[in-house]
Amino acid sequence: xxxxxxxxxxxxxxxxxxxxxxxxxxxxxxxxxxxxxxxxxxxxxxxxxxxxxxxxxxxxxxxxxxxxxx
Length: 70
Known about the structure:
This protein is of the alpha+beta class. The protein is built from one helix and four strands. It has one helix spanning 21-36; strands spanning 3-6, 12-15, 39-40, 49-50. The longest helix is centred in the middle third of the chain and has 16 residues, at 21-36.
């Protein structure tokens, strides 16, 4: 299962088991495009606000000698 966490005021973390490498980058880009296509309605007579997001992707191979998991 995917796991979602809020790590700060405007910071979120999504853990996707098995979503390493190219698959993780594709998921991150899909999420970025979907958010970019949203508009936030802030009230009558106001222009909707457009939304943007910066997305990063990191992965770790299960065979990695790294002592700390991501």
